[in-house]
Amino acid sequence: MKKIRTETERLVIRFLEEDDYSSWLTQYENRLPSQHKYDQGKLDMSICTKEWFGDLVTKYHQMAEDDEVYVFGVFRKADNTHIGFIDFSTIMREEFQWARFGYTIHNHFWRNGYGKEAVKAAFDLAFEKLNYHRIEAHINLDNIASIKLAESVGMVYECTRKGFIFEDDKWTDHLVYFINAK
Question: Taking the model in full, what pTM does it have?
Answer without folding.
Answer: 0.93
